[in-house]
Each structure stands twice: as structure tokens, then as C-alpha cells.
Amino acid sequence: MTTEPAAETPESGSETAGIDPAADPQAGVARPGRLEEEGDVAADYLEELLDIADIDGDIDIEVRNGRTYISIVAEEGDAGGLQHLVGKDGEVLEALQELARLSVLTATDSRSRLVLDITGYRQGRSAELQVIAEKAVAQVRESGQEIALGPMSAYERKIVHDAVADLGLFSESEGEGAARHIVVSHSEA
């Protein structure tokens, strides 16, 4: 499996992305207090956005595995307004996640690797990506040829890279920008 540079994929990069650890040995350490602070900052930002858009939703913050996870769920089962915040193929969700990360950077001078989910979209998409990875691995094993998957976000590529590796094959990201995709093969490139 090929991992991607932290500059491109902050969610799969190290905590020290963009920080010189020699200058500050504690800079790359994910401290629970810092993660809680970034969750609070991002939640406040997202709450303001929901208010401006007049969309109801509950915001949950969880810190696990050195990362802050923020979920926006519908109040009393009404997810209609929140679906607009997911957008086609999660595009709006990705943009909101980046805006939330920028709000944390502005408030704390610290880069954030927080993950935003709205109405469980990421959880459902993760299951879909697992199936995509399994099918690709089966095709590579059957044909002996590498398989190129469709373009995916950095977060989605990370999920597929991990799934392919767990299934015993190799994957590599290729392409640039919105065309960045994964190629699954029998061997490392």
C-alpha cells in the first residue's frame, strides 16, 4: 500500500504535518485537551452555519484514536435539510469539513485532522467503499491485471487503501486533483 503525503491527505498524514518537530518536540503530539478544544471550535462554527441556513441538527463531538470526530444528526428524525449539507457524492460535506478545519486553524494556530459526518453519510459510504475494495481485489486476483477505480476524495482513498491492504493486495493513488484515483494490483509499484 502506498501512503499519500500529509500535505495532500491531512486525514492520513502524521500529526506533525507542516510542523518542525525539532523546533517544538510537543508540536506533533495529539493532546486530548487540544482535540477537545478543536472539537469545540469546529462545533461552534458549524452551529453558526446551521443557524444561518436555518437547518436543525444536533452536533456530537467524539475524540478517538487521536482524532476529533464531529457528527451532525437530524433532530427528531427530520434529515431533509441536512441532506443538502452532504451534497452530491459528499461534495458539500467535504467542503464543510475543510471550512471547519480552517476555523480550528484560525482559532488555535494548529492544523486539524477532524472528521465531519452528516446524517451518517461517511459511515454508509465506508461500507460501500469496503465492497468496492473487495470487488477490485477479486477482479485483480481473477484477471491478474491491475484495476483502476474511479476518482475519490482523500478520505475515501484512505479507506480503500486500508481495505485493499487488509485483503492482501497493493494499492496506489494516481492522478491529480479531482481525477485522483486508486489503482489496485498484485505487487507494489
Write the layout of secondary structure elements.
Blueprint: H1 32-53, E1 58-64, E2 67-73, H2 80-86, H3 91-108, E3 115-118, H4 121-143, E4 147-148, H5 154-166, E5 170-174, E6 181-185
Parallel strand pairs: 2-3
Antiparallel strand pairs: 1-2, 4-6, 5-6
Helix pairs in contact: 1-3, 4-5
Key attributes of the depicted protein:
5 helices; alpha+beta; 16% strand; 189 residues; 44% helix; three-stranded antiparallel beta sheet; elongated
Description:
There is one protein chain. This protein is of the alpha+beta class and 189 residues long. 44% of the residues lie in helices and 16% in strands. The protein is built from five helices and six strands; from the N terminus they run H-E-E-H-H-E-H-E-H-E-E. It has helices at 32-53, 80-86, 91-108, 121-143, 154-166; strands at 58-64, 67-73, 115-118, 147-148, 170-174, 181-185. The strands form two sheets. Strands 1-2-3 form a three-stranded mixed beta sheet, with helices on both faces. Strands 4-6-5 form a three-stranded antiparallel beta sheet. It is elongated, with a radius of gyration of 18 Å. It starts with 31 loop residues before the first helix and ends with a strand. The relative contact order is 0.14. Mean pLDDT is 83; it is low at 1-29.
